[in-house]
Task: inverse folding
């Protein structure tokens, strides 16, 4: 099974590595409200969004939550926590029914260990995450949260 | 060993005695040999611009000695400091990896040494050496954590005193090794001007000046040139948590 849409990770991986990951992928449809990533909980999978809209929020320790923005098809979540071993600082919640592909953590880490050239793809994904946070800092330093919430795409 | 300003220039990465303590530089011998071949060492005075926000990426800078501020322009046109880079950090990494313009302007805060690596060389270096990939991932993870901390700090701190207290406490994580009058005092070296501190916490210079004067009046901090001393850490911490 190969993930449905192009995504920021697979676009940078060699075909043979994509094929290797594809053997372990699981394609799922999850309902609105599903936490794809939960702050403070180590992710068991790398999550690739194929379709649907998700909101990324930053836990602000007992205060209100900061919205980092909305994302959708092609975005990969859980990379930072998997690679660094640190707990996630963000929540990723489906705003509508979403199609996702999951890759088990151990499979992904094993692929990285055996194919370190894949770190370039990892760096791309992490750079994209960093750009999201930097855009928030640049765009809104006081109120937190970004532009208008997007109109939900067609329900999966 | 050559000297510039008040520090020794580290020309040979293989002989660098502090690389194991650095976020990026603790690489395998093979990777260090390659790094030695592709980097260009330069020494910069205080206030030198290494790269400009919006500029196409030319490459990355590995900060060997000194500090640099990463700043950007907010949507309201105000200059704001994203973070202060420490020795061992790779600057311009996101732009070089993703091929997008530099996200921030990088300016040295003190005389500094940086090793420049052209973008194409760096991407090859990253692809060819597994430990470089791992270090880059660690650096990006660190940068991401800093950015999240900034979002939390800037977006959700209620008051300027709270933001300033947070900033001082963050600096206190790397205190100066100076003799103190009392055991609970923490000396810091602050290289930022009040204008730059204002850009860091999203306020005006006048407000920073007023709040800092208040901290001094209350006996929480002592300011003597670039050396600040935290005299009452608990008071600053209370300000943050309330």
Result:
């Amino acid at each position: 099974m190969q993930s449905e849409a192009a995504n920021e990770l697979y676009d940078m991986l060699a075909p043979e590595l994509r094929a290797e990951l594809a053997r372990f992928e699981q394609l799922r449809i999850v309902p609105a409200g599903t936490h794809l990533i939960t702050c403070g909980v180590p992710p068991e999978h790398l999550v690739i969004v194929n379709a649907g809209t998700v909101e990324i929020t930053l836990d602000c320790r007992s205060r209100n939550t900061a919205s980092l923005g909305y994302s959708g098809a092609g975005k990969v979540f859980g990379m930072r926590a998997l690679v660094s071993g640190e707990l996630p600082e963000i929540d990723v919640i489906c705003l509508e029914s979403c199609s996702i592909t999951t890759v088990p953590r151990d499979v992904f880490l094993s692929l990285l260990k055996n194919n370190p050239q894949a770190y370039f793809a990892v760096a791309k994904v992490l750079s994209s995450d960093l750009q999201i946070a930097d855009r928030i800092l640049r765009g809104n330093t006081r109120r937190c949260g970004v532009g208008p919430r997007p109109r939900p795409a067609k329900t999966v | 060993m050559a000297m510039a300003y008040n520090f020794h220039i580290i020309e040979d990465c293989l002989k660098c005695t502090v690389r194991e303590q650095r976020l990026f530089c603790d690489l395998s011998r093979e990777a260090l040999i390659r790094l030695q071949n592709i980097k260009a060492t330069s020494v910069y005075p205080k206030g030198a611009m290494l790269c400009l926000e919006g500029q196409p990426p030319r490459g990355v800078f590995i900060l060997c000695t000194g500090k640099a501020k990463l700043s950007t322009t907010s949507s309201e046109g105000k200059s704001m400091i994203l973070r202060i880079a420490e020795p061992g950090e790779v600057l311009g990494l996101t732009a070089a990896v993703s091929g997008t313009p530099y996200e921030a302007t990088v300016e040295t805060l003190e005389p500094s040494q940086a090793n420049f690596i052209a973008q194409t060389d760096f991407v090859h270096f990253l692809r060819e050496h597994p430990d470089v990939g791992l270090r880059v991932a660690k650096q990006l993870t660190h940068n991401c954590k800093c950015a999240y901390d900034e979002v939390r700090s800037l977006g959700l701190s209620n008051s300027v005193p709270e933001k300033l207290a947070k900033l001082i406490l963050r600096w206190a994580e790397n205190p100066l090794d100076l003799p103190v009058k009392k055991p609970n005092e923490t000396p810091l070296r602050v290289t930022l001007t009040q204008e730059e501190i204002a850009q860091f916490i999203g306020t005006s210079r006048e407000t920073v000046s007023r709040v800092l004067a208040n901290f001094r009046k209350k006996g929480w901090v002592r300011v003597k040139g670039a050396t600040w001393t935290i005299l009452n850490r608990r008071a600053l911490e209370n300000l943050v948590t309330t």
